[in-house]
Amino acid sequence: MDHRNRFNVMEKQTTNNILMIRPARFGYNAETAVNNAFQMADANQEYVQKRAVEEFDEFVLKLQHAGINITVVQDSPEPHTPDSIFPNNWISFHADGTIIYYPMYAVNRRLERKTEVIEHIRSKFNIKGALDYSHFEAENIFLEGTGSMVLDRENKIAYACLSPRTDTGLLQQWCNENGYTSVAFHAEDDKGTAIYHTNVLMAVADWYFVICLDAIPDLN
Asked: How close are the terminal C-alpha atoms of the chain, in Å?
């Protein structure tokens, strides 16, 4: 399983409203492990799911106690979507009310775009329009949302480390159509393996940013 010990969330149009997907069958994903070197297989999938739900529910409570509004959508057991806890890879929300759908590398991750999840989103959030890039999956071209891109929304900059899940051409198209400037680069782990998602090595917040510069070979 992926031991990053974090939950990806999706930010709505306001800063204090977060959508989270509660996992139904979280665990090791063989389809994404081919280019995610951080995953480790765990034979006890029932235990992994149990711990994931416990951590998820605890995190929701902590966020709520901090005054953050949380919308939780329970994932369904079928079809099996082991990475559904990371919805920011297939959808993103933007201040003008737009939602954007993204093309996913793994086939079982494409199944996360479940009708009931999308309907719940539309019933709870003020959606004014949508952009859909998911059709690029048919061409084996991928851009996995705010995993592939770390967005500086205030300055309209999209940082992206290139990998099989982050296509240069589609990154530039996304930036052109959404008013962003792209900053693309290569990043590797300590074994020289390409890092699959940009948000594994950096984050941009309101008053600070986090980045692992040692992972960017062009700087070393």
From this structure: 30
